[in-house]
Amino acid sequence: MLRGYYTAASGMLAQMQRQQVLTNDIANANTPGYKADQTSLRSFKDVLISRLSGVSSSQNLGGLSTGVYLQEGIPDFSMGTLNETGKSTDLALVPTEVPADQKNGQPGALFLTVQQADGSTRYTRNGNLSVDALGRLETSDGNLILGTNNRPITVSSEDFQVASDGTVYDNGRVSGQLNIGYAANSAQMVKEGNGLYKAGEQGAVLPSAVGNQQIGYSIKQGFLEQSNVSPEEAMTDLMNTYRTFQANQQVLKAYDQSMQLVANKVGQVE
């Protein structure tokens, strides 16, 4: 009886966590470069059920799951739609050929490389840039865009040009080339908020895709990559999550009523 409590309660907790992921996706449906999370539900380790067939022997009847949990949320790095803005400070990173990871068979992911205020390296797909007071290219939240020399790229004004390979031209001169980070295993990328990712829990530095003959990409100036969240699909999943939560809630109520009957009726002397 108590096992039913834990099974229903674990289902409710898992759906609550999934609801948080989906609502975050919906809230960022219009955020440039945002990547939706794919959740994975797993059952707890099965318990082996046996029937005693004698004093010292038993017969295996099979396994029984004791609950479910939300194991992880993995970003979906599929390409979002391109929106033409016409602004020179808007850049879209468009992967054209990215090798699949040998372990999981999933394609890798490409990112713009940025530097935070503390000097740490992070990665983003949000190409909504601006030029700071020192002429450095930066993201909307103030992180500096790094070139292949791992230094910020500087320009004299917003009137600059970016070639398809990421080379930045300012008044006809080369100011640098965008450093494109390559994650062979995209599942290693960890969301940090504000469209930023770090490579692994320790924040490793990704190898550069620049000059890698096996990787193809292009930079489109005057375009922004939109979020790859499908609002319709996310809302449908959210409603299914809510209904599953309600179903587990009803199961929990049924078990509670049964326990009340046990406590109040069983063993009662009339």
From TrEMBL:
Keyword Transmembrane helix among record annotations: no
Major place of residence: other
Domain Flagellar basal-body/hook protein C-terminal span(s) in chain numbering: 220-262
Cellular compartment(s): Bacterial flagellum basal body
Positions of the Flagellar hook protein FlgE/F/G-like D1 domain: 109-169
Pfam families hit by this protein: Flg_bb_rod, Flg_bbr_C, LlgE_F_G_D1
Similarity comment: family membership: Belongs to the flagella basal body rod proteins family.
Protein name: Flagellar hook-basal body complex protein FlhO
Organism from which the protein derives: Pullulanibacillus pueri
